[in-house]
Amino acid sequence: MKHFLLLLLPVFAAVVTKAQSPQYQDAMTKQVGLLDVPASYTPQSMLDISNTFERIAAAEKNQWLPYYYAAYTQVMSALMTQDKDKIDGLADKAEANINKADSLKQNDDEIACIRSLIATSRIMVDPQSRGQQYGPESGMQIQKAKQINPENPRVYLLEGQALFYTPEQFGGDKAKAKEVLQVALQKYAAFKPASSIAPHWGEPHAKDLLQQAGK
To answer: May I ask which residue range the UniProt record assigns to the signal sequence (predicted)?
Structure first.
């Protein structure tokens, strides 16, 4: 047994070295930094950034974050585009990437948040016919994320966003949205990302929605 463990040491060392690759960290830091720049939030810019995340993922197949961010930027492009014919294709790409992230990091609250956004983007194609299918899916993923990590501010951002944009006859409530978004901002104030490249998006959007909900 001891001899077997000794044989495995070089393998473990290689995995650790790969996980801490300076090239990986530098590439991810640069791309994640772009997500903190408001000008990046256009449909085309999101796609350009997603392409780079996919290239990083192809080179670092054991890392979940490049797949996660590829999915995030693709679904954000879907949510922002004015061309409804493009939404399903972008949602499909985002779903494929988040499935890969999920295979590397299962039962994760951040991944559940992206799944909620993907379901929301599919509703936008045709709210009348798709709301009953994808609305519950989006809400279920939010609740899953909340159960995994009730301190994740993005959970409350997405919950408040759903209440804000959903028509009242289908359960929307702007007053309730305001309350939930206030909780989101409290959670953002206390939130500390696990690393400089860990998910931390959403606070500016939460502030903007709260301002709108207060009108």
So the answer is: 1-19
CATH number of the domain encompassing residue 129: 1.25.40.10
Written as one string, the DSSP assignment of 50-77 is HHHHHHHHHH-TT-HHHHHHHHHHHHHH
> d(Cα 85, Cα 78) in Å, to the nearest integer?
10
Given a cut of 90, is residue 140 above it in pLDDT?
yes
What's the rounded Cα separation, in Å, for the pair 46 and 204? 17
pLDDT tens per residue, range 103-121: 999 999 999 999 999 999 9
CA–CA distance, 7 with 207 (Å, rounded to integer): 53
Judge whether 13 lies within some domain: no
**Any domain includes 5:** no
Enumerate residues 6+ apart whose C-beta is below 8 A from 159.
Answer: 142, 146, 180, 184
Domain annotation covers residue 8? no
Helix axes 43-59, 22-34, angle to 10 degrees: 170
Is the pTM higher than 0.85? The answer reads yes
Q: Which two tokens stand for residue 5?
A: 């463990």
Is 30 among the domain residues? yes
The total of structural domains in the chain comes to 1
Cα separation of 200 and 128, whole Å?
Answer: 32
- Residue 171: left if φ>0, alpha if ψ -120 to 50, beta else—which one? left
Are the C-beta atoms of residues 77 and 59 closer than 8 Å to each other? no
Give, as one character, the DSSP assignment of residue 39: G
In whole angstroms, give the CA distance from residue 147 to residue 47.
31
